[in-house]
Write a structure and sequence with these properties.
With 324 residues, the protein is mainly β. The longest helix has 5 residues. Helix content is 3%, strand content 47%. The strands form two sheets. The chain has a 13-stranded antiparallel beta sheet.
Length: 324
Amino acid sequence: GTTVNFDEMYGFIAVPNAGRVYFGQEDSAASLLIVRAPGAGALGGDAVWDEFIDNTGLADSSPYITSGINDGNDATKIGYLSPQFAGFDFGVSFAFNAGEGEFGTEQRNRTTLENEFSAAVRYRGTFGPVGLQAGIGAMWADAQSQNASGQPLGGTNGLGQPQDVNAYFFGVQVAAYGFAIGGEYSFGSYRGASVGRTALNNGLEDSWHYLLGATYTMGPLVFGAVFGQGEQDNGVRRTGTGAAARFSDIDDRKHTVWGLGVLYNQAPRHGLKFGYKNVKEQNVPTAAPTNPRYTGGTGTTLASFNGSNTRTINIGMAGIRLAF
C-alpha cells in the first residue's frame, strides 16, 4: 500500500564448506547457476537491446524468446546453494507464490504461478589452458487457477485451465587463448519472453530455443557474436459456429536473432559497449495464444506489420557500463 518497492531484498546464512541458505526476494537457484552462451557487453539473446523496441499490441510485450531460465520473479522464496566439490556445485529453491513480495501480491490469490521449485547443477574447471563450465537447470510450477476477478479458470472438465509450467535449460562454455565459445538450449511447457515464466493455455505444445555465442578478448577489448533461433506454439484459429465451426492450425511463432558487439574496458568496473542486432520475428501473436477447442473463443490472432506477419528489427547500440 505504499510507493516503496524492492526488486531484491533477502538474507542468508552461510557456513564455510557447507553452503548458503538464502531467504527473501532473490533469484531462483536455476537462474543463479545456469550457464549461458557467451556475449560481449549488451550483446545476447535477450540483453538490453529489447528496451528500445516498440511492442505495443503484441503478446508479452517482448521482441525475443531466446532468454535464460527465468529468475523466479524475484519472489519471496527459500533456497540453498552448495559449495563447490571437485568442480561441481548445485542449488535448489522454492517459492510459494509469484510476485516480488510487496504489499498486495504476497498473499496466495491463485492468479499467478504457485509452488515454484527450481534446481540446477553446474560444473566449472580448468584443464591446462582450457576452461570449461557446463550447467543443467530446471523449474516446475503450478499454473494460475483463477482470473483477476477471482473466478475459477476452466469448466468441470478442466477445459480452459492453463497447463502447469516446466522448463529445462542446458548450457556450456569453453574458453582458451582468449576465445570463449558456447551455447544454450531450452525446452518445456511455457511461453513468452522468459523461459518458464508464463503458463501455456490448454491445447498448446511446448516451446524451445537455442543460442550460440563466441567472444575473443584482446587486452581491454572483448569482441562477440551470437546466433539463435526459437519457436513457440501459436495454437488454433476457429471460424464459424456450431456445426459450421472449423478449426485451423496457425503457424508457430518463429524467432531468428544474430548480432555483433564489442566491449571496451576503459578501467576497472567501467566500460564502453557497442553492438548491432538483427532480429526476424514471424507470426507474433497479439495476445496469449489459445486453442478454441479447449478455451472457447475464436483463437489466436497474429500481428500485422505493413500487411505481413513478419517483422525485421535492426538496431545499433552504444552505451556505458558501470559496475559497483
